[in-house]
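Data deposition worksheet. Section B asks for the primary sequence of the deposited chain exactly as it was used as input, without tags or linkers unless they were present during the calculation. Section C holds the resulting structure in token form. Section D is free text for depositor observations; keep each observation to a single sentence. Incomplete worksheets are returned to the depositor.
Section A, Depositor: J.P.
Section B:
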Amino acid sequence: MNSRTFGFYTALLFLINFALQSAMAQAKVQVVSLKCDHRTNPLGVENMHPRLSWQLNSAEQGQLQTAYQVLVASSMDKLNETEADLWNSDKVLSGQSVHVSYNGKALQAQQRYYWKVKIWDKNGLPSSWSAADFWEMALLSEENLQAKWLRHPDFQDNSLEAKPAPYFRKDFTLKKPVRTARAYVTGLGYFEMEINGHKVGDEVLAPVKTDYDKTVSYVIHDISDQLKQGENTVGIILGTGWYNHFARAAWGFDQSPWRSYPEMLCQLEISYTDGSKEIIASNESWTCSQGPIRYDGIRNGEHYDARMEMPGWSTPAFDEGDWQNALAVAGPKGKLTAQYLPPIREKHEITPVSITQVRPGVYVFDLGQNIAGYSHIKVAGPAGTEITLKHGEKLHPDGTVKQEQILRFLKTGEAQTDKYILKGQGIEEWHPRFVYHGHQYVEVSGLPVRPTQETLTGVVIHTDFERAGQFACSNPMFNRIQELMHWAFIGNYHGIPTDCPHREKVGWTGDGHLVAETGLYNYHSITSYLKWMDDFVDAQREDGLIPAIVPSSGWGLEEKEVSSAENPGPQWRGAFNIITWQLYRYTGDTSILARYYEPAKKYVNYLHKISDKNLTTHGIDDHKAIITKTEGDILSAAYYYHLTDLMAKMAGVLGKSS
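Section C:
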């Protein structure tokens, strides 16, 4: 071979090798943190065009996305470029990595869909495929339900007074090995579910509070690992919550139009390994009884008599003896909707910093800080011993817990007071299921022996959103302010943002919008705020008026004089427009503006209707002495202008002229 021929083949091999290496080269970028409608691997998606988002991770500075490709398939096996049976976006030249709308085949109720993404970087090189994530569709229609709403048959009188918590159970046999299983379940006001003697899920105070005449949230659980071939039992306990707020109190929730005794709905859908399916649905064949939870009121407290426990009540071996058949009822008026915000969970345990005996046999536990949650006690003593736990944020001069600021709003029963009666069988541990309290101090009486720090622990509960960011600096004062804002925010988020966890526990709109940016800076709270915005839509009157408390018992929606305290003006009711705009600002998700544009416009039109020469003169400002010397009329007019300006901005983003 002469030198010219050798040179030619050498150059050719070099070019082939370069082409192969270029074809095989991948961007030094990873695609991570996949989200579907702002959630990771969500169950219960109701959006027929879910919005998909992802993040890029690279050690190289200045990296960016120039194109993407999304695959969606009905199974993991089909999640590849040749078999993706639902959507292959192909290569899309775009830097968009958030809120990419699914644009594939029609989605079906209760089905799981798998997806993954790859991108092309600033040099046009493709990344590897992301790890696969999934989303699962909700029921989508009540036509997919075979379950019936159930109530205890003894709860039929019209008084709606406080009664012991009802327990429901159902034995069933599965004749084949289980592949997957789901529970679609709700109970009003609150519920806890057990299967074969073990609690399902780790949330508390489920489902979240809504206007039950408009919306009823249900929860979806993956129970594949809790069912077995053979005998099984499902059990459900109900608490009153806000569905039967029997205590007379400020803001009229005892007069709510939806009020009824606790009710439940449950449907288990089981898929077997052979491909067949079976449904276990709540109906009159379920049985019910009353148990150790003798009383529960969300503002009052919970009473538990351990002597009335029913060991193994949610297992197949239990003898249900005198249990009665449950009663099928019409259920609430609201539309069933999958709960799409994070649940409320136990998040922290607080050990008391001191225990003080304030009277003979009466002890006050100081947790060292205010929390929202409940007390977990660990005690032993004779059967029938009654222990009382009284929670509060302040103390009287004699060291006892002060509750006057709570009782001023609560006209019926005790406030934030739990009671536990011992069964007398060694060390007993307990905490309430269906209440929570705002408190730093717990006054405990009835203990059979002097307490120790192991006797009581404070349990912090709140909506379990992830942290989105942190702040720290060299100034200890600013760091302390940040820490206090964190505790104040989580202490006031239990399904909705509230004004206080100890007294009212309701969604005052003015309080909510003032702290919204704190919530959005610090937490992945988008879905939680979207839920609250849906509550505003449910609460809005046809003429556009929004109550100052959302969800509302109906208080604030009556026709009132403009000077009335029940007509607090746009600085409160305008929270709907303000938070909607903030959610768009913090996400860039235009679908949020589209979702709430018409209700927001309806409220601004209402303001225009009641204004005088383009000025609003109604509204209360019960915090103005602290915040400003400006009178309420001027603030109302300023908010009217601000809300009108926000509507113009929303219209501009959406390309609307009206």
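Section D:
Residues 1 and 7 are 10 Å apart (CA to CA).
The radius of gyration is 29 Å.
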